[in-house]
Amino acid sequence: MIRSNKPGERRVLIASSHPLFGQGLRSLLKERHQTGVKVVGMVSNLKEALAALEKLNPDLIIVDYDDEALNRDEFLARFVEGEKKLRVVLLSLQSGRDAVVYDRRTLAAAQIDDWLEEWNYESQASPALLEETGGAVETVQNRRTGMKHFVIAAILVVIVTALLIAGLDRVQILPIQASLQADSIDGLFNLEFRVIAFLFSLIVVFMIYSLIFFRRKKGDDSDAAHIEGNRSLEVIWTLAPLATVLFFAYLGGESLAETLRPDPQALEIEVTASQWSWRFEYPDTGIVSTELMLPVDKQVLLRLSSTDVIHSFWVPEFRVKQDALPGGQDFIRDLRITPTEIGNYKVRCAELCGLQHAYMLADVQVLSQADFDQWVNEQTFVSDDPVVRGRQYAEQFGCLACHSTDGSTLVGPTWQGLFGHEVTLEDGSTVEADEAYLRESIQDPGAKIVSGFQNVMPPDIAADMSDAQIADIIEYIKSLR
C-alpha cells in the first residue's frame, strides 16, 4: 500500500549509481508536477535503499533501468514480492525520448506521461479508496478531461462550419448561372465550398481552442510533453484525403462529360481571336460579326482558332472556357454552350496575350429565338451604300477594336480625318493617305508603320476579305473627314 507522510505529498527515493540520472529525473518531476512531489534521497544499491527506507519513509522507489550496477530483480523481489510492500518503478531515460516506464505492478510498458497522470490521480484519491484498491486506481480523470475538450471542440467545429456555409449561401461568390453547362459545374463548386468550410473550421477551431486552453501558463518554462506518433491516426489522415480527392475526381469527370454532351442540332459558330479582338462567323448564313449573338435554350458549337498567339474564350456566366490556338485547321478547339438566360454578357480573353489583353472584350447577347431570327435577317441584308457596308465590314473584321473613328488614340492610328492627309512614318518620311496607301496598309500592314505605333496588326488580316469589301472599308474611311 502506498504511504504518505504529509497529505497530498509524494515522497520519491531514486536508485541509481549515475548522478545524471538523478538530476534528469528531478528535473522531469519538477517540470511535470510543480507541487506534491518530493525527492527524499538517492541510493546506489539495495543496502542503501533498505537503510533509507526506515529513515526517509518513501512512497515510491524509482530504479534506473539502464544501470547495470544495480540488480533490478533484487529490488523487485525485496519491495514488490517480499514482506516490505512498496511501489517500485523501473525507469529508462533514453536519448531523444523523455522516459519509458516499466511498472510491473500496474503497467506492462507505458510512456512517462501516462504513468505520471496515473500517479497524480492516485495521490488525489481518498485514503479509503487507496486502501480498497491497494493503490491500483485506474487513470480515468485525465482521459475524461481530454474527451471533454474534444467534444467541446467538435461541437464548435460543427457550429463554425454551419455559419460559414450559411454565409457562403448569402454571398454571391459566383456570377449568375446563364448556361446549361453551368448547372453541373456550380453543383461541384458548392460541394467543394462546403468541404472547404469544414476543413477550415476543423483546422482553425482546434488551433484556437488549443491556444486558449492549452497555452503555456505564466511562469512555466518547462519543455512540452513528448508525443509519440499514432499509426491509426496517420492511416486515417492519409486515406481520408485520398478518398476525398478520388471522390471529387469522379464528380469532376461526370461534370466534364456533362459539359461535352453534344446536340446534333447545335448552331455552329466560328470564333477567330486576334490581338486584341474577337470575330464571330456564322457559316450557315455567311454573317461575320464582332458581337456574339446566341439564341436562348439552343446549344452552340464554338469552333475556336487564333490568328497570332494563344487566346482563351471565357464568358464567366457560362462557366466553361476554352483556348483558341494558332496553327490553322489542325488546331481548332471546340466549346459547347447552351445559354439559358436572355441578357447581355461579355466574352473575355483568359490567356495573357499581349499589350491590350485586359481590353480584349466582345459583347455577347442571348436573344429569344424570334429576336435572333430577326437579327439574322437584318445582317443578311446588303445595303446599296458602300459607306454603310464599309462600316459593317470594319466591325466584322475587328478593325474598330484598334482604330477609333472619333480621333481618340487606340492601338492603331485613328481613322478620323486620315484620308487625304500626310502621315509621318517611323523612319521619318511622310506619305499621303490616299486610296493606294490605305489598300496597302490593309493588305500588307508592315509595309509602312506610322510613327508612334507598333506593328501589331495581323499580317494576314486581308486574307478573308474580298477586293470589294476592302474597297467598301476604304470608302468608309474616306467618309470620316
Molecular structure report:
- With 481 residues, the protein is α/β, with parallel strands linked by helices.
- It has 4 domains: 10-139, Response regulator (Rossmann fold), CATH 3.40.50; 142-259, Helix Hairpins (Orthogonal Bundle); 267-380, Cupredoxins -  blue copper proteins (Immunoglobulin-like); 386-478, Orthogonal Bundle (Cytochrome Bc1 Complex, Chain D, domain 2), CATH 1.10.760.
- Helices cover 40% and strands 19% of the residues.
- It contains 12 helices and 18 strands.
- It has helices at 19-32, 46-56, 72-81, 112-124, 127-133, 141-170, 180-213, 231-259, 369-380, 386-396, 435-443, 467-478; strands spanning 10-15, 37-43, 60-64, 87-92, 100-102, 110-111, 267-274, 277-282, 287-289, 292-295, 300-306, 311-314, 321-324, 333-337, 343-349, 361-367, 422-424, 430-432.
- Strands 2-1-3-4-5-6 form a 6-stranded mixed beta sheet, sandwiched between helices. Strands 9-8-7-11-14 form a 5-stranded mixed beta sheet. Strands 10-16-15-12-13 form a 5-stranded mixed beta sheet.
- Helix 7 packs antiparallel against helix 8 (231-259).
- The model is unreliable at 103-113 and 118-140 (pLDDT under 50).
